[in-house]
Structure formats: C-alpha cells, structure tokens
Design brief:
heterodimer; A: 336 residues; alpha/beta; Rossmann fold; 2 domains; seven-stranded mixed beta sheet; 12 helices; 14 strands; B: alpha/beta; five-stranded parallel beta sheet
Chain lengths: 336, 323
Amino acid sequence: MLPETVAPRKLTPIKAMNEALAEEMRRDEDVVLFGEDIGAYGGVWALSKGLQKEFGPLRVFDTPLSEGAIVGTCTGAAMAGLRPVIEIMYVDFTTCAMDPLMNQAAKIRFMSGGAFCLPMTILAPCGAGTSEAAQHSQSLEAWFLSAPGFKVVMPSTVYDCKGLLKTAIRDNNPVLYLWHKALYDLEEEVPPGEWTIPLGQAAVRREGRDVTVVAYSLMAHRALEAAERLRGEISVEVIDPRTLRPFDLDTILASLGKTGRLLVVHESPTCCGAGAEIVRQVTDRGFDLLKQAPKVLGGRDLPIPFAKSLENAVVPQVVDIVAALRALISGGRVDG
Amino acid sequence: MRFSCEELKEMYGTMVLIREFELSTIEVFAQRMRAGDFPGALHSSEGQEAIAVGVMSRLRPDDYVFSTYRGHGHAIAKGIPLERVTAEVHGRATGASRGFGGSMHLFWKPLNFMGGNGIVGGGLPLALGTAYAAVKRGTDQVTAVFFGDGAASQGAFHESLNMAALKRWPVVYVCENNLYAATTHVSGNCPLEDIADRAAAYGIPGVTADGNDLLAVADAAGAAVARARAGQGPTLIEFKTYRHRAHCMVIPEHRPNQERTAWRERDPIQRLAAMLLSEGLADQAQLDEIRRRARERLEQALEFMRQSPLPQPADIEEVLYAP
C-alpha cells in the first residue's frame, strides 16, 4: 500500500499516474494493467512501480513484446467486461497494433449496434525533446482523433495526470491517454487523497484580454512561458483543453468573446493536426467572435530529427510562440 | 465422444439450415445486384458447414467464439436466432447488430458470440482477451477463434499463438483451410504442407483433421476444448476443407473443374447424409423432412426480415460511445 497522505505534497507525472493506477485497481477488481516490463521491474518509466507486488502478476500482467497481441488481448478482455489499462512504451509503437486499435477497439461497439462496451485505456508517452529521433518522439493524437470511437486525453499538469487518468479508466470507452516525456521531471504540489477530472473540460491557465492561445500537453507550458514573456506587451489568455475528444469548445468560444483572436499551438505536424480541427470548430460556431483569421502554430511537417539543434527547429519553442503572438497582434503572418 | 442418433440428426439439420441460408442469401443479393443495388460483400461458407457445427457441438453456450467475415455458419451453429442473423445480413433494424455490422459483423452477446471480423486474422488477438478474462475470473470458459488459411500468414496469427502458448490460455485455434485466400492457393501462402505444423514453433499441439467429416471435426474440437478447459493451454486445429463458392460474390474465380468436382463429391452434408443412411440412423424420407423443415424455418426468418424496418439514422451517433 502506498502511504496515506494528508498534507499537500509534490509529485511528478509518473508518481501521480502510479497513484491513479493503484487507487483504481484497489477500487475495482476488473481494472488490470498490461504492458512490457511492467511487472517486477515496474515499467521502463517506473509507471507501474510496486503495482505487481500489491495486485499480483495476473492483474499487473507482463506481456511478450507484441503490441498487437497486447492491444488485442485488452480489446477482447474489455469485451468480456474487464477494464484493462495498457502501457505502450512509446506512442510510436502503437503502429504495431493499428489493426486492434483502429479496426477493432474503436469500432466494435459501433459494429455491434451498441451491444458491447470497450472500457480500456491506452497509456503512452509522447512528444519530442529527448533526442530519441523519429520513431520515439511523435505526438500521434491526430491519428486517433480521426478514428471515431476513441477519446483522447493529453494532460499537462501533475494534478491533471492523476485526475484525468482515473476518469479515463472509469470511462466505458477506449481512451488514448498521452503524457509528455519532456514533463517527466516536472514536480508540482498537489492535494492529498483522490480526485477525478471530467473529460471534456478545458482549464483556463491564464487570463488575458488580447488573444486566446489554445495549447495542450507540453505546449501548454510553453504557451504560459510565452505569455509571461509578453507581459505588459500583449495580454494572453491560455486555455488548456486537456482532452481533445471530447473537446470543450464552449470555454474557447467564451474566451474568444473577450479576445477575438486565436492561436492554437501543438507540436504534432501542422498538416491535418488538432489545430486545423480546432480552428474549423471555432469558425463553424464562433466566426463572428473573431477579429482576424485564427492561426495554428504546429510542428513542422517533418519527422522528428535526432540532434537537439534540429529537433528544436521542428517543434514550436517559446520564442516561436512569442513571435507568432506578436505577428498575430500586428496582423502579420504566422509561420506555422 | 459419440453422438446419439437424435443429436446427429439435429446437427445434420443445422448443417442443412446453414446451407439453405447461404443459398438463399446469395439469391437475394443477386436479385438486388441485378436490380442495380449493391447490397455489400457476401462471403459464402457453402461447403464448410461441418466445421461450424462440429466445433460448436463441443462448446458450451457461455464459451466465447470469434468468427470471421465468412461467419454465417458459425453464428447459426452457435445459436444466434436465425431471424436476427437474417435481418442483419439484409440490413434491418432487428438484426443481431441492429444493421450496423452486416454480414461480416454478426455479434450476439447473450451467447458470447464476439463478432465476425472484416480483417483477415482480426479476431485472433481479441481471442486472447476473453481467454485471459476467463483465467482472471477463474471460470473454465473456453475461447474458440475461427480463421482461414490466409490468416495464418498474418503477424496477428503468430503473435497470438505465441502469447496464448506462453500463458497457457484456454484458446482453440480453428483454422478452416479451404485452400484459397481470396484467389491465392494455400501453396502461395504457406511453405508447409500443413498449417498445423506451425504449432510446433509455439510448443503447442497442432492437429489436422478432415473438415468435411462432421465426426472428425467434433473429435478434434472436443479434444482441444477439453484440453483448454482443463487449463492445459491452446491447440491449433487445421481443418482441411473447401469452399464451393468464390471468396465473395464479386470476385470471379477460375479453379480447375476437376478440383471443384472432387470436392463436391466430398461435400460435408452429402457425406453425413450417406453415413446416416448407411448406418440405418435415418431414412431418406426423414432427411427430406429435415430439409423441408430447414427451408420452412428459413422462410419464416426471411419473412421476419421483410417485415422489419430499415435502421434509422436518427440515433446513429449515440451508438458510438457508451455512456
């Protein structure tokens, strides 16, 4: 058992997610965890540390190196009424399980006319910034957003990492939950005990008057830093949607009612990215709120390169966000 | 395990019902196509009825079954109400999947019929999950997963057998080797004479059996199911069989006439009928009566389908996510 905590304490995302897993496994016997190296070793990210000891090898299940079989097992187990959580070591490796994910898990409820539920969570790290090159650094949320049937969760804070993971596990649908590797060492103070956060509820991270920035995952932190650098020059409101499906458009529209300007920032490729979809939804329902054309600052349409100097050139940096905001305010061009 | 005379006649009746169902479905689809309406893909299992009926005869109602896109026979043999199968295949709101799945995606939760699959080998990894669930819950339920000779070339086949063997999970792998993956002969897919030999790579039993002989099917399935139920792990069974029809209605196939004729002579329904007659278990009049009843039963199901409404798109989005 993890020690009972009474006072606010500092946690990292991994510790927060580990708590969420332990609490949900204590709460519900049907919650099981599958993945590679997750048992006695505790997972390569230490996400499942101590869990096999508490819950046993049948519920914290070490698998062979077979992402397709892992996701297939968990899809079938969910159909049978269990509530599996899968750790995929890197989101990049979901490519090895695309049939079970896209053709099976995402569609079985629909294809069966609603007869089956698939309560399952796919938990994986994403993102660049760790010099792991093109096959260990991607942010693949857009692929899953274009697959109806999935929910997509991308926390940016330690508090959200725990609260959203608990909600994802309790959700009766396949949820892709992506945490960012570059936030591995983040330490934040969180309250004691348990909490959940509903899916589909954005957080206003900073209030402002001139422009609304929508940014999630690591980019929420960079957007806040950019806003801070522009203090006194541009008043920036930063909204972290936290979940991309369901998506809290209302909070963004309310903000645009105030600012009239929108910049969406994400690190995955700009082409067909979440930003394009967010702008579409905003122009569908909130075109009249906009004082000027909304912009997307996404990752460049390139694989993630290895060398830090190259990697930084592909993913939006704080200076890029600052420049984009200045360009937006002055009516100039934003280079995406 | 031997069957009683009544059991054999009942299984014969189910095989005949599947055959009549396949023939009627082809006819309805062909009519619609002639009328300029493409009603979807249709994969007939004509010729493979003994495998569906023989395997299901060894399973309990609470055992899990994963089927394929050639799964009408599996669904009927598992016991999904014929009306629901018929309505689904013809796209009605009363169908087993409410018209959302069609011929390739028949599901029936009350009997743990976990669906057909439009992806070759797509059910193989899913079957691991129901097997795991049975182990986790300490039940003795078995999972049977059907697939074809083509699927044995998919990575999913190898990943699945490896994991099931490693964990000794209660899965029966039912390979229906009907000689062709779409139009490609099995010799173009597998360097081995017997797909069952692949079991050796995973340290599990691999068995071949005559898939057109109901009793041989039931024997092989019975041994594999007993093994799985006793916690001794998975078995790969390869049933040698033949589909009389093309892969699906819209892909014409050119196979040697001699081959077709030879396999027609080994038709599983004719063989069972001949056995019943020669052993004195039934006379021709009784067999004719069984066929007449099957046709009558099918006509009732078709009438149910015709009286059923088309699915309405009003709540189509509500089905996607569970509350």
